[in-house]
Amino acid sequence: MEGPLGVTEPSPNTVRLQRLARAYRESGALLAAVELGLFTKLEGGADTEATLSAALGISTLNAERIIIACLGLGLIGRDGDKLHNAPDVDRFLVEGKSTYAGAWMFFTHPDWAKWGRLA
User: Fold this and answer.
1) pLDDT at site 12
2) DSSP element (H, E) containing 83
3) Can you give the residue range of the structural domain that contains 91?
4) φ and ψ at 15, to 5 degrees?
5) How many CB atoms lie within 10 A of CB 12?
6) Cα–Cα nearest to 105, from 46, 38, 33, 21
7) Cβ(66)–Cβ(36) under 8 Å?
């Protein structure tokens, strides 16, 4: 597709629209991790899949799912078999720190159902 001044522009595609359509999954994973206290447990030493699963009181399958989601979103990282919080997560989503902002994220949680019924 040729744009102004004869510059070739990429053809439109659905990537941005697909990302927007699935954005709720990112929010859902983040809020689930905060609700479970995942980042706090990780900071507290439950830094493997097995210890994190036990500390959170969830099945290993569900622990694996939330860990994969958090890794994919860059909320946590992995060094070998050890997991760690991303710097912004460590600063704002570890309970007990003066900078903790996890509770703030739940102010919008009740609005989820309303947004899902716009149509």
Assistant:
1) 92
2) strand 82-85
3) 24-100
4) -55, -50
5) 9
6) 33
7) yes
Q: What CATH number does the domain containing 53 carry?
A: 1.10.10.10
Distance CA 102, CA 66 (A): 17
The pTM score is 0.83
Q: How far apart are CA 41 and CA 101, in angstroms?
A: 16
What is the token pair recorded at 24?
Answer: 């709720």
Q: Which of 92, 81, 105 is nearest to 26 (CA)?
A: 105
**Which runs of consecutive H residues, i.e. helices, occur in 2-117?**
15-21, 23-36, 38-43, 49-56, 60-72, 87-92, 102-105, 112-116
Assess if residue 29 is contained within a domain.
yes
Task: Tally the domains of the chain.
Answer: 1
Residue pLDDT, tens place only, 61-95: 999 999 999 999 999 999 999 999 999 999 999 99
pLDDT at 3 over 80: no
In whole angstroms, what is the distance from residue 90 CA to residue 79 CA? Answer: 16
Separation of alpha carbons 48 and 56, rounded Å: 12
